[in-house]
Each structure stands twice: as C-alpha cells, then as structure tokens.
Amino acid sequence: MIYTLTTNPAIDMNLMGNAIRPNQVNRTANTVYSPNGKGINVTLVLKHFGVNSAVLGFFGGFTGHYIMDELEKREVQVLPVWVEDKTRINIFVNDGSDEYKFVNSGSFVPVEKQVEFIDKLKNLTDCEYLVISGSLPAGIGEEYYEKILDICQEKSIEVILDISSSKLKDLLKYKPLLIKPNDEEVQKIFGITIQSKTDINRVMSFFKTEGVKNVLLTLGEKGSYFSDGHTIYECSAQPVHLISSACAGDAALGAFLSEWLITQDIVKALKKSAAVGANVAESDALGDFKKVDSYINNIRVRKVGTLS
Fold first, then answer.
1. How far apart are CA 79 and CA 19, in angstroms?
2. How far apart are CA 191 and CA 206, in angstroms?
3. Which residues pair with residue 36 across a beta bridge?
4. Is 216 left (phi over 0), alpha (psi -120 to 50) or beta?
5. Which tens digit of pLDDT belongs to each residue from 249-307?
6. 3-class DSSP state of 71
C-alpha cells in the first residue's frame, strides 16, 4: 500500500482574470476550488490510474473539513491528525498571460499533534511506500523528517522524497527509494549547477554515491532525467500554454509512480509523467487528463548515459 504524507495541506483557489490592475476591483471568472497538498495530489493521480493510496496529514478548521469531504467523495482513504488552526488556502490567479501565486504558511502543529502522527505511522501495518511531499507547517522543525524516516527504516518502508528543504541533504543517508528534485533545488541544496549533459551525469553520480537508489530530476520545459543508479534516461517535454503550475509537478510524480512502482517500466513511467504534468499545467485544476494519451505519443525517452 502506498501512503502519501502532506504535513501542510491546502485548498487551492484557481482564478481567471483579465488585465489584473492594482488599486481597483478586478473581476474574475472560472473560480475552481480543490483539495490540495503535494502528497494529496499524488494520491489523487494514483487513484485516477487505478492504484490504491491513502492520505496522511494535519488538518484543521472548516478548510480541513472541506478537504476531507472532497477526498471522501473521491473515495480516498484519509488518516487525519486534527489541529486547532485552520488549514490554509492558496490562491492562483491567471490573467491570460501571467500567473500570480499567493501561498500561505499554513496552520500551527503543536508537539502533541506531532507525536500523535508519529504513533499513527508506527501503527500502520500495510504501508509499503511512503511519499513525503511539500513543506512543513509552523511548529514542526526539520528534524521531524528524521523521526519519520527512522520509523520507516525500522518498518522497512520505502521512502519517496519530494521536498525542497535543505534538510534533503541530510536525509540521503536513509537511502531513499526515489527523490524528485528540480534543477533549482539541486543548485540551492547541493550547490551543483545544471547547464549541460555533463552536469546531469555529475548530479546522478553524486546521488548514487550518497546512497539514493533512484532519481527523477525535473527541468521544467526542458524535460526530465531519470537514473536507476545504472542508466540515465532523458525524457522530452510536451509544450503547453500554461494556465496554472499548481499541482503539475505532483501530478507528474503520481503518474510516474503509478507506472514505475507497478510495472517497473521506466520508459512508460517517464512518458506518462511528462504527459500528465503537461496536461494539468494547461488546466485550471488537477483532474484534466483528456490529452494524456495523445501527449504520450509525442514524448520521447532515450538512454543517454551509464553510471559506474
């Protein structure tokens, strides 16, 4: 069973507007509300492709209940830890040419609730994979990641990390099954700038040396690279007209896992990942998969290197 952890979930409010101007009333249209959080998004995409997954996380207030209600409508299992603060709302506004992102910090999670979650994780009996995605909310220090991974190590749970925290560097010692950094995160966290294919080889070799089993490296419109510790694969990107970048990266990860964890087919997984991420980026909410099949036919995957 795959579990996803979103410590800082949100409701995403996506708006469309025209000629956004300061200091005046801006009329919007096509408002879409959706339960969100990086791990939640991964679970929703896994479910779309017929793979069972359950959601773990901290929820609070009427906004937390909204997310729970929406996930229940989608028949998604949720194991919540309830906090007093309201779950955050993030706002994304697209005026036809630019996207404006307003991301809030999230609810405060006290120590006793952190302990409650740790106990919940310890008591899971069917968790084979844990996907840890997104930011930490107020009240939780980055050492919390190590507490979680210690339990995963004790219970032989394979860990997939999609976090932008500098703590990622310290977490490599746990030998995660997969990490999903982008080029900016690699530069910021590990000090490696990616400008050429040589840099790709250097990055993948570095992660292998550090004990990471698999790496999915995303480069936005430049596509992505994957390493299984032996072979490096390059995947092209599908050009799109961006409506909202919210959820696109999470959708891409969910699509990748839906194929890779089940069939171990790297080429199919990379194509599905790129197609789903592109399709979601050109829609106003997670859930638009209409063009995925046609996009898969346009995407190319090839082997570009080996690691010794």
1. 42
2. 11
3. 10
4. beta
5. 899 999 999 999 999 999 999 999 999 988 887 776 666 677 888 889 999 999 999 99
6. helix
- Residue of 12, 85, 162, 250 marked catalytic: 250
Residues 6+ apart with CB under 8 A from 108: 83, 84, 85, 137, 138, 139
Of the CA atoms within 13 Å of residue 71, those in its CB half-sphere come to 30
| Cβ-contact 162, 253 below 8 angstroms | yes
CB-hemisphere CA count at 13 Å for 293?
A: 2
Does the annotation mark 250 as catalytic? Answer: yes
Tokens (6 digits) for 185: 């995160």
CA angle 234, 211, 133 (to 5 degrees): 70
Q: How far is CA 99 from CA 77, 129, 210, 242, in A?
A: 32, 34, 37, 8
Measured CA to CA, the distance from residue 247 to residue 277 in angstroms comes to 8
d(CA 188, CA 186): 6
Sheet holding 178-179, edge to edge: 77-83, 53-60, 2-6, 129-133, 158-162, 178-179, 215-218, 224-227, 231-235, 301-306
Question: What integer best gives the mean pLDDT of the chain?
Answer: 92
